[in-house]
Amino acid sequence: MLSHHIIQSFEGQEITPDKAMEIGNELCRRFLKNDYQYVLAVHTDTDNVHCHIIFNAVNMWNGKTFETLENRKADYAWKRLQRISDEICEEYGLSVIKKPERSKGKSYFEWDMNRQGLSWKTKLKWAIDECIKESLSFEEFLKKLVERNIEVVYNPDRVIDLKFRMEGQERFTRARSLGWYYETEQIKKRIVLCHSEFIYRPRTRIIDTTQRKFLDSYGLNRWADIQNMKEASRVINVLTQLNVGSQKQLETAALIEHAKQGTVVDRLNKISREIDVINDHIMWRKTCRKYKPFYDELQTKSGLFRKSYEKKYATELGRYTEARESLRAAYSQTGQKVPSLEELEQKKTALLQERSEKNAEYQEQKKLLKEVEYARKTLAEYLENERNTQEKKRKKGELE
Questions:
Q1: Same domain, 188 and 322
Q2: Are 13 and 86 contained in the same domain?
Q3: Domain for residue 101, yes or no?
Q4: N or C: fewer beta carbons within 10 Å in the chain?
Q5: pTM of the model
Q6: Residue 188 domain-assigned (yes or no)
Q7: pLDDT tens digit sequence for 162-190
């Protein structure tokens, strides 16, 4: 390895670029001890100021590598780097992530959510889904996010037009990084769909026993309690299926099931896009197969005979050349060999099969989510009804 790359990030905009440069240089001085050449740059074009440090892996005094001198014991040197960076930031009164766990680019917040079995992306998707269901317009959707303490930046004139940041997140999350289902246009379509007459809205059968007629009639109240317990038993079946035992656990389970559905939807859309691409490639391959004889025949001719042939079969030769170049361009970027027609059709068949399986998985997930949503609403109404009933009974007893 010729060099190493370090990124030192700071919380939001709590630091100026000049101060970041000063801290970056101090980090290099303490960590590299003037033994390695380095280049330091401060970036201000994102939501948080950060330093990029690239240092030469070869010690400029003895010619030995950084790995040989500093990194013999696993990742000891990188832990030392982290400690030094934290010490400097604390000296300057800046934010420091407490108890971080080393991972591939995860913040402490994301690590903590993963430790609990819920990543911040899962929680963010859940919050977005809930706001979509509660909103009548995209503008209202943005307001609902703010009410949930989620920062949102929407700028339709930019390529990255929508991004979010939950409380505890270090950086903003681009909508597109959450998947196709969470891009701006899809969110707008989902808001419209949520308020169409075809969307499923769970309606519970919980009877409000706080009404006077139930409080005044033991028999009627007893009947209502039995009906409510029947609905509660349906909820218990869902809780058992999800292996949860409380309202809080049900909320967490619902969040996870929504995330699963989003993952399936993302994959379904990716498969559809892949099928569209392969359809183009198959069409080009078939075109090449159909018109290649004209091209091969052209190679046997020369002089005036060649020109005459090219003029006579210009359309056929043009279609062959266009299809061939389209195929080459499609695979040149990846360095892959252009597959045969048979290989393309086999890949398409596999994708169609996977799409069919994913569709079945989506339908099952959709069915489960209906039950989960019904259970959430029923349980909340049932518990609220019980609290209100007991309160009214207590007040009635006090008055009597």
A1: no
A2: yes
A3: no
A4: C
A5: 0.47
A6: yes
A7: 999 988 787 888 888 887 778 898 898 88
